[in-house]
Amino acid sequence: MDRAAARGMEVAIVTNGHRLAEYLPILRRAKVREIQVTLDGPREIHDRRRPLLGGGSTFDAIVAGVDATLAAGIPVNLRVVIDRDNLEALPALANFAIERGWTKAPSFKTQLGRNYELHHCHTGPQVLYSRLEMYEALFDLAQRHPEVLEFHRPAYSIAKYLFDNGSTPPPLFDACSGCKTEWAFDHTGRIYSCTATVGKVGEEVGTFWPAVTRDDAEITRWQDRDVLAIEACRECPVRLACGGGCASVARNRTGDLHSTDCRPIRELLELGTAAYLPGLDAGEKS
Ligand code: SF4
Question: What is the pTM (predicted TM-score) of this model?
Fold first, then answer.
């Protein structure tokens, strides 16, 4: 943190948050852009999904860390990782956050992550949602529990942006940050394109230890990937809202980095217009 401060760099932190309050004096030494903390539901659900190693509750310590971070004026990005096991508990977590005053804090934001299969090693794939299934379930949940929207307003592709700004967002030529704005470093000295590939044998793009090396051909392939480079995307009508998706998911699916990870843009826009433009029926909206 001292070195970041000396270089005038902002730091973004991802943590399980269990000892966040204790670390705050150290974290405050540099400018913190945000601290991302995960709560997977209210106490009972969260503690079941994210217990201490060896057992034990983590919820109260994380909540105390979020309280202290917000009180210090440091932005908190509260992440909830969603699957079929905890979605119905989201209203309870939303109410908890509302009652605690978090949702009124200017430096508080939320992010819903989808629990998904990246490496074919998930122990319970039946609980996973597809991207569209998750947003459909969220839409249905928010109809029944509008407080969910006070906690988190889903983007539904570009629908929230359209509703909030009255204009389209900048075109998205590239949805993937790998080897562009994102790199990942593991404990063995290898460098990867992003957090989705870190640790995968054979997917490193260089090393930082014991020597600094770069696989420039592979890095260039990552950096060149966008909706103009992927043949199937070039004529796609939703390409500038989709951006070609995640390169790692695409390569897991096809073996080729320059292939598609299609996002259900049209269906998401339909959900988004129904959520943010109530009063119109689906036909009028489309
Ligand atoms: S929906 Fe599929 S084909 Fe269209 S831009 Fe996205 S990844 Fe490419």
Answer: 0.88
